[in-house]
Amino acid sequence: MVVGVPKELKTDENRVALTPAGAAAFIAHGHQVLVERNAGRGSHIPNRAYTATGATVVDRVGDVWDGSDLVMKVKEPVPEEFARLRPGLALFTYLHLAAQPELTQALCEKDVAAIGYETIALDDGTLPLLTPMSEIAGRLSLQVGAWCLQAETGGRGVLLGGASGVRPGKVVVLGAGTVGASACQVAAGMGADVSVLDVNPARLRYIHDILGGRLTTLMSNQANLEEEIADADLLIGSVLITGDRTPMLLERDRIKRMKRGAAIVDVSIDQGGFAETSRPTTHRDPIYVDERVVHYCVTNMPALVPHTATHALTNATLSYGLAIADKGLQRAMQEMRPLARGLNVHRGRVTHAGVASALKVPLTPVDEALCA
Predict the structure, then answer these.
(1) Which CATH superfamily is domain 131-299 in?
(2) What's the whole-number average pLDDT of the chain?
(3) Which residues are catalytic?
(4) How far is residue 39's CA from residue 109's CA, in Å, rounded to a whole number?
């Protein structure tokens, strides 16, 4: 099989889908790897590192898309790439289709088999390809949140760790999944006053235990949300429903009652966002102020640290990419249920329940689509 790795076109996306070590693994399995020239530059991976493994570095992006059976990316195709989609192509990348109706339509019309990293799920519900980026985004959320609270950005001028004789800043995390747990670890390490809310008591118990009780865990309900949001200096949204749109937890009226100069970091923005005032931003222009609250809503946060993120991503995706290349798409899906759960679009039909629900389109079960 020919595996293609194009350069990412999304604004300020510096990650690349495959490291040279990953390319070497595909080549060792008898596959050919095409890498667009300078695809790894943003992650400080030179072209010669790919050619040294036996991969072919090509100058034209068309050669990657047209010459590949499987295209591996980091982020969803942008409109400029829609014309590159074609029947029979397998696309393996983060898709987040619940917030991308135009892309979903293009994938269906072009008869692409689209597998979303973020929807591959193990039997226990764990999302192995989303986890590494969630860890990074969770840790970054405190880094960028602390910056948002600085006076020059319009923030309250609060130091999260406080100072001798001065209270620390209040960090409220909504969602106790991988992002939330990582955010809580960093926030507690900074010395902030931390609260985390979730509907799953087992997750709250887990975070309480790993942090030795150095935070407050609360069940997510209307009363607790109202109280914690009003008291927050930094509010981090890390709620996820696999494949579906993020539930709207913060209406504008609630945000109006937040402290002037407080900050919101919406890590869930790539699935639509958890606040009514959230709208996607870029690393080039990451923040805005709405209702006197600083908002950070960058849709590809891990691209801030592309070298780390690229290596973590390849570590997670490689075994699944190799399975597709070695077995072919249909057999790989039939033999690996986690991979089958990641299939979002196939033969012009939406095959993931979360995506179908979010976009209000008919759902075709994966097994039915594979047999069509």
Answers:
(1) NAD(P)-binding Rossmann-like Domain (3.40.50.720)
(2) 95
(3) 96, 270
(4) 27
